[in-house]
Amino acid sequence: MNKYAAYCASDFDANEGYNTKEHKMNAHSRTSSEIETVPYSDILPVFTPQFCKDFEFKDVQHFLKDLLKPEEFRYIAKEEGKAQIFHMLWVLQNKSDADIMSFLNCIAYDYKWIVDDIKNILREHSPVTEEYLETLKRMRNDHQNFTDFNVHRTKPFMKLRAALRSLNPKIGLASVVLLGELGSGKKWLALDVCSEFTVLQAMNFKIFHIDTKFCDSPDEDLHALNTLMLKLNPNHHFTLEGPSKISYKILHLQEQLRELLKAKQFLNCLLVLTNVQNIKTLEAFNLGCKRLIITRNKKVSEKLSTKTNKHFNLEEGLSFTEFRLLLDKYIKKYDWREFATTNETDIYYLSNGDPYLLSIIAKHLREKKSNWFQWKKYLENLQIPDKKFKRDIETSLEVLTQEQMRRYAVFAIFPHCVGIPVKVSQNHS
């Protein structure tokens, strides 16, 4: 048995070190109540900075081959630098406590200080850890589909993470603009990055999400600003006094919000604006704080100067590996690899890696194994829109009313060749 196997197979004690003969209490052992409330998978992200700074996967990779599935090992080994660390942590976050304990035992020989830090936090949570866990819990409750089915998209994740952590409206970048076509996965990418520990920490664990998809008038802008005010101060009292014109009400509320955002607790907060469709809404939320602006409207993106705003265009779809991870998320009833054969590859390339389309396909494959070949046939007959066609769609969407947008959202998932029954259409008219 080599030194790594020996240490990983042993039990670790904080004071006694490793002992394979006596079954001492493991350094990572916790009380039953702690195990029930906080799994290792939730604690590990707190140590992202330590892993990124000090850890080298190659130091322990020859042993971890025995601990990880072949596809998991390849998923980690193919990356380099910080991306490799994130792949490793993402794999571990889907593991049981027992597997993570084995991993910690493996790395303790070379990285005792990291293991000791994890041990100490497991015994007694720091205020930062508590705040992270509370924030994580809220985000999971608010976005359950995202929690269950999100797949990490490595390249855009790393780019957006770096951009958000560099925001500093006082001396540099004020906003990050995430531009992407309909169904490109902008919102879930933003949620993924905004739930990452170091990003949350950079915002003092204060990230506020406002959906502006209905903001096509001053009244709706005011409503969205009111929503933000209540997120910042749930006890805020809206008086009937003051200006009567909507434009003046907006100005008055903006002044209140800017003043509130100067408070110490909100100094580094991030405002995430999703579905920003017009410049007036963009300007309504110019409140002096850090912003992540998510839009498919190029005019919104072009309005913001590149000198003080970071522009990020989400053009790429899912990678083939990410599509396979998506299938793992959706399909639990059977081993999809036994049924995929070459259909898996064909479906991916026929879809051009489109995140929205692949999510729909994965959801259907979850229910019926026989759908693999059928979906391949559908995609072969379905014309996937090219860039020009998508631009034409975007231009058309900009002139739709909110009611027309609602109908579009209902029926847009169907290809042009599908005949929709009149009764179904009437139910949504």
From TrEMBL:
One GO-annotated biological process of the protein: apoptotic process
GO molecular function: ADP binding
Residue ranges of every copy of the Dark CARD domain listed in the record: 42-107
Gene3D superfamilies registered for this protein in UniProt: P-loop containing nucleotide triphosphate hydrolases
GO cellular component terms given for this protein: cytosol
PANTHER family reported for this sequence: APOPTOTIC PROTEASE-ACTIVATING FACTOR 1
Designated name of the protein: Dark CARD domain-containing protein
Source organism: Glossina austeni (Savannah tsetse fly)
